[in-house]
Amino acid sequence: MAPAHAHKSLKLSHDLPLDSGQVLSGVEIAYETYGELNTDKSNAILICHALTGDQYVASTHPITGKPGWWEAMVGPGKPIDTGRFQVICANVLGSCMGSTGPASPAADGAPYAMRFPVITIRDMVRGLVALLDGLGIAKLHTVVGGSMGGMQALSMAANFPDRAERVLAIATTARHSAQNIAFHEVGRQAIMADPNWNGGDYYGGAEPDAGLAVARMAAHITYLSEEGLTEKFGRRLQDRDAKSFGFDADFQVESYLRYQGSGFTQRFDANSYLYITRAMDYFDLAEEHGGKLANAFAGAKARFCLVSFDSDWLYPTAESRHVVHALNAAGAPVSFVELSAPFGHDSFLLDVPALDRVVKGFLK
Amino acid sequence: MSLRPDLAVIAQSIPRGARVLDIGCGDGSLMAELTALSGVDARGMEIDAEHVERCVARGLSVIQGDADRDLVDYPDKSFDVAILSQTLQTTRRPDLMLDQLLRVGRQAFVSFPNFGHWRMRAGLALGGRMPVTRAMPVTWYETANIHHMTIKDFNDLLALKGVNVEGCWFFAHDAVISSASANWRAEYALYQLSR
Is residue B125 part of a domain? Predict the structure, then answer.
C-alpha cells in the first residue's frame, strides 16, 4: 500500500449520492492537469484511468518514480497534445492515490476499510462530473478512456450527455462478461484469503501483500496475449541452465509475474482493488437503462469513436461492436476501428502507431 | 475535388440534410463531398482499417465492418439513402445485399461494372480469356469481383425482387451516356432504387 503523499485534490462541497442508495460525505477527488485551459474553457480533455491507474497520466509517479502511464499518448506534440488541450486526469473514487476510498478516514477518523460503500462506475463518473463542476468546465472537448476508463467515458456519455462533445472509448466494454467477473473474483478471493487482510482492517499493520500480488498476477495475464507472452518469455528459464525440480521461479514468465505482483503492492491498496473490481463487475450500461443498450445512448449528443485490438481477449472486438450497434440504433455519430497489435488488452498503453493516428484524427 | 462521375451523380441526387449510409466508403471522399455540399448526415462502413483511420482523421463517422456480415445490425429504415458504390459484385450474395440495402435505407444507390460491355464480350469471345479492361483492370485471380453481371442481369434481378427503379445512369469513358444499347456500351451503371 502506498505511503501517504500530498496529491492535488478538490474537496467536494456537497455529498455524493451513490447507486447503492448510500451517500458519501467529504469526498475528495485527486487530480492532475497538463496544459492550459483556454479562455472559453472549450479545450479540456478528461482522461479516465483504468483499474489500477491514477491521475499521473503524463508526469512522474510520486511513489514508483516511473514515467506517467500514458506518456506515449499525452504531452506536447503527442496525439493528445497538451500544447493544444488542457488534459485533466483524476484518481477515481474508491482508489488510493488521493481520492476518497476505503483507506480514507471515515467520520470517526479511522479508515473506512470495509465500511466504505460499494461503488459503481456511474458513481466514479459522478465524482468526475463533480470535479468538472469544481473546475468550472461545463463541457469537455473530449472524454477519453481505455479499459475501465472507457467504461467511465461511455457511462458519462449515457448519464451526463451534455458534458462531452466527443467520446473516445478504447479497448472497453459496456458490460462485464461472466469471464471478466470470474477473473476478478479470483483476485478478490486471493486478497481475502490472505490472513493479513483481516476483514479489511489492516491499516497501520501488516498488509495483505501476498494476496494482492496474486490478484495482480492473475489479472496481468488477462492483459497480455498468448502470442505476446510466448514471444517475450517462451519457456525460457530464469537465471539458470536447468529446471530446479523445486518451486522457485524457474521460468522467466513466473519471475516476471512475481515481480509485477510485488511491485504492485508498493503502490496499491488491497481494499481499493476489491472495491474497484466490484464496480467493474457491476457495470452493465444496458441494465441501467431498461435492459437495452441503445436506450442508454438515446439522449447522447456526442461524436463517438471506439477502438478495439484484435489480440485483446479481455474486452474483445465483439464487445466494442455491441456498443457501436447500440450507438447506431440510437442514431449517434460513431466511428469504430479494430486495430491489429500483438500486445493483448494492454495494446492501448503500448506503442501502436495506428492508435496514435486514430486518436489524433478524432481529436482534430 | 473531382468525384468519380457516378459519385458526382449521387451527390447531385441526394436531398439536403438526408441521412446517408455509404457502404464501402473507402477513404471517405464521397462522404466528405456530401457533407460539405449537401449538409447530409453521412455515415460510412469500410472493411479496411487504414481507410477507416483516414476517415476518422477527416472527421467522418465510419465503422470498420464487413457489409456481408454487419449490415444486418442496422435498424430498418435507419437511413434515407444507402449507397453501395462499385461493391455489389464483391459481396457474397448480391441479391441478399440488395434486400439489406433497401431494408436499412428508404432508397439505395447501387453502381456496378457492366460485364456486358463490348470490350468484355470481345475479350472473352475473341481472346478466349477473362477480359482485363480499363473499367475492370484486375486479373481473374486477383480481382475482388466474385459475381460478374451485366445490366440486363441486374434488371432481371430487380424485376424478380420487385424493386422500383427511381433512376438509372450509364457511364463510358467517365461520362454519362444514353440508355440506348447500354448493355453493350456502358462500362458501368448506377441505379437509384426503392421498394
Answer: no
Please tell me whether residues A197 and A72 are part of one structural domain.
Answer: no
H or E element at residue A307:
strand A303-309
Q: Give the nearest partner residue to A337 out of B43, B49, B73, using CB atoms.
A: B49
Q: Domain check: are A93 and A23 in the same one?
A: yes
Q: What is the dihedral of CA B175, B179, B184, B185, to 10 degrees?
A: -20
The strand pair at A86-90 and A334-339 is best described as unpaired
Asked if B56 lies within 8 A of A339 by C-beta distance, the reply is no
Is A337 an 8 Å CB contact of chain B? yes
**C-beta of residue A49 within 8 angstroms of C-beta of residue A69:** yes
pLDDT in tens, A118-173: 999 999 999 999 999 999 999 999 999 999 999 999 999 999 999 999 999 999 99
**Which parts of chain B sit beneath pLDDT 70?**
1
Partner B contacted by A363 (CB < 8 A): no
All residues of chain B having their beta carbon less than 8 Å from the beta carbon of residue A362 are 56-57
User: Which residue in B has a C-alpha nearest to residue A361's C-alpha?
Assistant: B57
- State the amino acid at position A69 in one-letter form: W
| The C-alpha cell that represents B71 in the structure block | 449490415
Q: Which of B63, B74, B79 to mutate to test the interface with A (most CBs of A within 10 A)?
A: B63
Q: Which value does ipTM take for this structure?
A: 0.86
B164: in domain: yes
Q: What is the distance between the alpha carbons of residues B163 and A193, in angstroms, rounded to a whole number?
A: 67
Q: A166 pairs with which residues across the strands? A: A142, A303
Same domain, A231 and A330: no
Contact B98, B149 (CB under 8 A): no
Is the sign of the CA dihedral A40, A142, A98, A284 positive or negative?
positive
Q: What CATH number should be reported for the domain holding residue B107?
A: 3.40.50.150
Among residues B84, B83, B79, the alpha carbon closest in space to that of B103 is found at B79
Active-site amino acid positions of A: 147, 312, 345
Which helix H or strand E contains A304, and what residues bound it? strand A303-309
Segments forming the whole domain that contains residue A97: 9-177+284-363
Strand partners, B83: B22, B109
In chain A, residues with a C-beta closer than 8 Å to the C-beta of B80 are: none
